[in-house]
Amino acid sequence: MARIGFIGLGNMGAPMARNLAKAGHEVHGFDLSEAAMAAAEAGGVRRAASGAEAARGAEFILTMLPAGRHVRDAWLGAGELAAASGDAIRIDCSTIDVATAREVAQGARMLDAPVSGGTMGAENATLTFMVGGAEADFAAARPILEAMGKTVVHCGGPGAGQAAKLCNNMLLAISMIGTCEAFALAEKLGLSHEALFEVSSKSSGQCWSLTTYCPVPGPVPGSPANRGYKPGFATALMLKDLGLSQEAARSSGAETPLGAAALSLYERFAGEGGAERDFSGIIEMLRGRS
Ligand code: NAD
């Protein structure tokens, strides 16, 4: 069993750290928020007085922070986290831009390991990890990641995990909007939800947004459409990921016109009150009654 430092015990970090403790690891956690510390402590995480204290003596140090600037501050700022970390393997699970992921990894044994699966996946240890970094560090960290998730994929060198996350979520936003448009058009044409689902789920329109996360109530009983679009995956979080993918497209020179259109549609939905609703709720805006 390993000694682990865990910094950032928010909605995702607290349950992830609790799952590491549950698996028998010695987890020392730190968060700026007292409520976050208490939530982690209730699940067997030991309280540290600072990030540096959580890191000292650890074999693995995880960060789960809001955005790139927090991750840069944590690893390259004045908080002594890097100095306290020695030769430990650093694992950043936050969703951040590829450039910052590469910058903080320089000269360190560091993996970028963003996740998908949301807070339910964090609670149930069923997250998917997309990992960038050296093969040997990935192999060493794999059992730690497997205590928090059910799918762990090595995507390539530093930044590759973030790249995979941004590309996947851009595709997800585009496919969700496409699925919503198809249902909105079907409604205008007098075609039932069930009929469209029956056909498209078995033909060339098939996609995850339709068959697992259907944006209309009925065909997929567990989808957020069946509970008034309570998230799930909040539009505000999708907007963050779409912003990161457009930034990556600009800096790399990739053409992503549908990604840009998805960002602008989700910005509109958020501006019309959808920010805290599930991202599949954009169907209501596309129907013209948000
Ligand atoms: P959150 O805001 O609930 O948690 C972030 C925590 O970091 C907060 O508790 C905050 O106090 C703490 N923090 C900030 N700066 C700190 C510092 N210097 N030292 C110690 N603690 C610090 O956010 P979250 O929902 O847990 O998301 C974390 C990351 O995971 C984000 O990058 C997000 O994009 C990504 N993510 C979230 C979800 C989701 O469904 N919530 C899904 C996938 C990925």
Which ligands are bound? Answer: nicotinamide-adenine-dinucleotide
Helicity level = 40-55%
Q: What is the overall pLDDT average?
A: 97
Main sheet: which strands, in order across?
A: 3-2-1-4-5-6
Domain 6-phosphogluconate dehydrogenase NADP-binding: 3-156
Family: Belongs to the HIBADH-related family.
Protein name: 3-hydroxyisobutyrate dehydrogenase
EC number: 1.1.1.31
Describe the structure.
With 290 residues, the protein is an alpha/beta fold. The protein has two domains: 3-157, NAD(P)-binding Rossmann-like Domain (Rossmann fold, 3-Layer(aba) Sandwich), CATH 3.40.50.720; 163-287, N-(1-d-carboxylethyl)-l-norvaline Dehydrogenase, domain 2 (Orthogonal Bundle). Helix content is 50%, strand content 13%. The chain has helices at 13-22, 34-41, 51-55, 68-76, 81-85, 98-105, 118-124, 135-146, 160-188, 193-200, 208-211, 235-252, 257-274, 282-286, and strands spanning 3-7, 26-30, 46-47, 60-63, 89-92, 110-112, 115-116, 127-132, 149-156. The strands form two sheets. The protein has a six-stranded parallel β-sheet, sandwiched between helices. Strands 7-8-9 form a three-stranded mixed β-sheet. Helix 1 packs parallel to helix 2 (34-41), helix 4 runs parallel beside helix 6 and helix 12 runs antiparallel to helix 13 (257-274). It is elongated and about 65 Å long. The model has no long low-confidence stretch (mean pLDDT 97). The structure holds nicotinamide-adenine-dinucleotide. Nicotinamide-adenine-dinucleotide is lined by residues 7-13, 30-33, 36, 51, 64-66, 70, 74, 94-95, 115-116, 118-119, 237, 240. Nicotinamide-adenine-dinucleotide binds next to helix 4, strand 7, helix 7 and helix 12. Residues 159-286 form the 3-hydroxyisobutyrate dehydrogenase-like NAD-binding domain. Pathway: Amino-acid degradation; L-valine degradation. It catalyses: 3-hydroxy-2-methylpropanoate + NAD(+) = 2-methyl-3-oxopropanoate + NADH + H(+).
